[in-house]
Amino acid sequence: TTPEAGLERLEETAVDCVVSDYEMPGLDGLAFLQAVRENYPNLPFILFTGRGSEEIASTAIDRGVTFYLRKSGTESYELLANRIRNAVGRYNTEQELQRRSRAIETSIDDIVTLATEGERASEPEPVDVAEAADACWRNVVTDGATLRVETDLTVRADPGRLHQVFENLFRNAVEHGSERSAVTADGEPERGDLTVTVGSCEGGFYVADNGTDVLREDRGRVFETGYSTSEAGTGYGLSIVREIANAHGWEVRVVDSDRGGARFEIAGVETAAGARRGHCLRAAAARWNGFCTP
Description:
Layout: H1 3-12, E1 18-20, H2 29-39, E2 45-49, H3 54-62, E3 67-70, H4 74-117, E4 125-128, H5 129-137, E5 146-150, E6 154-157, H6 159-177, E7 182-183, E8 189-190, E9 195-201, E10 204-209, H7 237-248, E11 251-255, E12 263-267, H8 282-287
Helix pairs in contact: 4-7, 5-6, 6-7
């Protein structure tokens, strides 16, 4: 394949290692290495060539090559296979250590947040739910999921804490809902696109997805500190949501969703007009086939 095709492949597919020759049409191996390093600074890259030199090797090292190997018979391919195994093993170990480090940092942040969010909310102010949801969605890694906002509700809340509620619920939906699989007419599993919806419901608003549902026997536990069914989860996100809700005098609960995924409702919410929200938007309910509770 060509270097250009290789760069396109990297954008489309996760790979563990790049093995490249030096002399190729278009970009040479050094230019290809430089292009890869611009976006993938730690990805293993092995320059495997039969027409190298000390100058090429030196330049490759300066540009971040993982290994530089010369082709010299069948034994060089055995050496290449060994270098690939070593590079990929080291890369995967580094990635796992980074993931664990991020998880620890997130856990510490979540513990600090959990310790403070149970305090009484500061003086509430009018917050547009749609605008808050859109802003929070941009702060979350969504993995290709789609957000739909079906409400014009304005509530009285601590803006920063309401944002924390949305971000935590969005992360929960992406972490757990992205594992969903639809079923074809032949009964075969088929991966579907995850959609997260924010709408109005009896007494407040909800965040729902069309991914994986929360089992009834687990609904009493999902808000417990440290509880998570995902390896990527810390078990603090929904606990923080509950603490923020309590601080506002709200109630948060998990209910059935007609879309087959999880639905979290926040009730007891005061609107900007000072009244308790007591109905769903009829237009949203019609579009979502009873997604709201009338």
